[in-house]
Amino acid sequence: MKRALIVGTGTVAGVAAVLALNPAGASTIAAGLPSGAANRSAAAAGTSGSSSTSSGTTTATGSTVDVGYGTVQVQATLQGGRIVDIQALALPQNDGHSARISQQAFPMLVQQALAAQSSQVAGISGASYTSSGFAESLKAALLSVGHAA
User: Fold this and answer.
1) Which pTM value belongs to this model?
2) Cα dist. 105→3, 23, 84, 102, 108 in Å?
């Protein structure tokens, strides 16, 4: 009986400690976004477009996709018809959990898209909403510049 009480108390204390733990802290929730991303996201909400430079580099902004836990919007950079970079303009950041998922999933989604040279990504287990929003926004960006999505 005494052992059960000690084990039960230890379990409750351990669970409480885990639930109270927030290693990322509130100040780093948006760390996965490039600086100014929130401002660019607000300015470009619901739009997609592109711009070109004389060096043959094209930047295409995808549409803003509401995934239920926040919004996803990406900007793709193409050079010579190839996708060379993808930046996040908006990722789900409504709470710490969504922010951590976004921070972990986004680089993996970028790798998949760069390898495929399209918006057809396999997605990330545990980040299915973010994955589908990423693919939809990237597809809109690529189509806006005439690239096969």
Assistant:
1) 0.66
2) 43, 18, 19, 5, 5
Do residues 122 and 102 lie in contact, with contact meaning Cβ atoms separated by under 8 Å?
Answer: no
How far apart CA 21 and CA 62 sit, in angstroms, is 35
Domain assignment of residue 21, yes or no: yes
Residue 28 has pLDDT above 50, yes or no: no
Q: What is the number of domains present in the chain?
A: 1
Closest by Cα among 59, 126, 65 to 97:
126
pLDDT tens-digit profile of 70-114?
Answer: 999 999 999 998 999 999 999 999 888 999 999 999 999 999 999
Q: Which of 29, 31, 7, 25 is nearest to 99 (CA)?
A: 29
CATH of residue 115's domain is: 3.90.1010
Q: In whole angstroms, give the CA distance from residue 128 to residue 139.
A: 16
Q: Is residue 149 part of a domain?
A: no
